[in-house]
Amino acid sequence: MGEVFLNLLDYLELLSGQKSQCNSTIVVSFKGIKIICMWKIREYRESDLLEVLAIWETASKLAHPFLSQSFMAKELNDITNIYLPIALTWIAEEKKEVIGFISLIDCEIGGIFVKPNFHKLGVGKSLMAQAKNKCQCLTVKVFKDNYIGLNFYLKCGFKKIAENIHQETGHQILELQYFE
């Protein structure tokens, strides 16, 4: 019989029968292996800016290898000077290190990014749960070729409502929506 692997949050939810946001230390012993989840979700502070931008850049290169460097440089500038100042942003933090973030402008997700070495551990789900607690209906635009982001949103219950061409890049972009 083969083994079944679950990410940390799925495993904890299966054990407890409850949804978890993992805002405190949880230790689960399974066949002698301890799984420790120690991140918390908090509001963004201006002092987080450099870590947030570094996460955005690293995760964006992984999720958007099809985008030009000039477009990415423009986006980095816009995030710093336009979007972060007007967005409601939450940070996932572990041991005082920023490991991910999600930003909302009204009830539209401007972005959700997690350090790649923290992917598939439930950090993104925790951030998304925070956004879902704020808004019962969420929207997001995601490049069709961003398989990492698209698969994550679909797993979080988002449904496609529109498909267009992104004017600046010429790539297909999907508009997704989540209803509680």
How would you describe the overall organization of this protein?
The protein has 180 residues and is of the alpha+beta class. It has a single domain (40-179), classed as 3-Layer(aba) Sandwich (Aminopeptidase). Helix content is 35%, strand content 33%. The protein is built from 5 helices and 9 strands; from the N terminus they run αβββααβββαβαββ. It has helices at residues 8-16, 49-63, 69-86, 123-134, 147-155, and strands at 26-30, 33-37, 39-43, 88-94, 97-105, 108-114, 137-143, 159-165, 172-179. It has a 7-stranded mixed β-sheet. It has a two-stranded antiparallel ribbon with strand order 1-2. Helix 2 packs across helix 3. The longest helix is centred in the middle third of the chain and has 18 residues, at 69-86.
General form: globular
Helix content range: 25-40%
Q: What name goes with the CATH superfamily? A: Gcn5-related N-acetyltransferase (GNAT)
As for the CATH topology, it is Aminopeptidase
CATH architecture: 3-Layer(aba) Sandwich
Instruction: Just give the CATH class.
Output: Alpha Beta
Mean pLDDT equals 86
Number of strands: 9
GO molecular function, one term: acyltransferase activity, transferring groups other than amino-acyl groups
Pfam family, one: Acetyltransf_7
Domain N-acetyltransferase: 39-180
Protein name: GNAT family N-acetyltransferase
